[in-house]
């Protein structure tokens, strides 16, 4: 277990933003994680848990407490059952499951971050989300002071949400278990229109597993969503805003604002409709590359807010507020940030 003081946090995030931690602990075993959490809680010390740092916006003042960096490793496969340590690099783990000929998370290729973060955000992309395959999450419960195992149903998954995100002070994820599918080298049925179109197949068809993985990886890279230290379009937290889910009343008001214009719309259950945050941003006047300062929209994707190399967190937040307020003024729809805010707020 490595302990550092006044340690920079920016290098631990994909945005490369944020001030220092008063104390940074890097844990490489579950026991070290639990020991660090218990010690911080017993001392009444603020605690921030970091995995891959891909979904964090940390304030310029840093974090006045203990930052726990989870660096555990573990990839265990038993038939179609997969267990990942929380610190496993997610993109690498997905690639390994494809190497093993197992479907279930192949459309989540190239997503930065660690395995332990996937149930927190119910990570999803291209028509697939981890809620579909997670069977159990092993976590340390900071209220019960013990390690617990939560079933997939216990996790209360919904769109980019879970019980872990709803109550972030309660659990620290240690391990995540998945049930994958051996489909004879074929992918899961394709649900996302862009993927089907790129592959030249109809929706709900399956294709070669490796082809599906590599196609998604190429699509993500084309949008600046695969990490590349030399490409500032990837110095981001991925999609900064979630796709809005509107009630029937909200959707009717939105349609009234649109007039003759047609916006993307998808059923979201319970009479609600999901629309596209990227479409809203673009049609509110914020195109790719918008911004003249050190933080701009990605030149490849309007949903990514990027650090062009010399930005501060406040620069990024100023841009986020400009986009959020502009969309609200144009369409009456409130965009909600997807990354976790630490010491700051929109």
UniProtKB/TrEMBL annotation:
Main location as per UniProt: cytoplasm
Signal peptide location: none
Catalytic activity: UDP-N-acetyl-alpha-D-muramate + NADP(+) = UDP-N-acetyl-3-O-(1-carboxyvinyl)-alpha-D-glucosamine + NADPH + H(+)
UniProt domain FAD-binding PCMH-type: residue ranges: 17-183
InterPro entries documented for this protein: FAD-bd_PCMH, FAD-bd_PCMH-like_sf, FAD-bd_PCMH_sub1, FAD-bd_PCMH_sub2, MurB, MurB_C, MurB_C_sf, Oxid_FAD_bind_N
Known pathway: Cell wall biogenesis; peptidoglycan biosynthesis
Pfam families (UniProt xref): FAD_binding_4, MurB_C
Enzyme class label: oxidoreductase
Alphabetical UniProt keywords: Cell cycle, Cell division, Cell shape, Cell wall biogenesis/degradation, Cytoplasm, FAD, Flavoprotein, NADP, Oxidoreductase, Peptidoglycan synthesis
EC number: 1.3.1.98
GO MF assignments: UDP-N-acetylmuramate dehydrogenase activity
Domain of life: Bacteria
Entry-linked HAMAP family: MurB (MF_00037)
Function: Cell wall formation.
Similarity comment text for this entry: Belongs to the MurB family.
Protein name: UDP-N-acetylenolpyruvoylglucosamine reductase
Highest classification ranks of the organism: Bacteria, Bacillati, Actinomycetota, Actinomycetes, Kitasatosporales
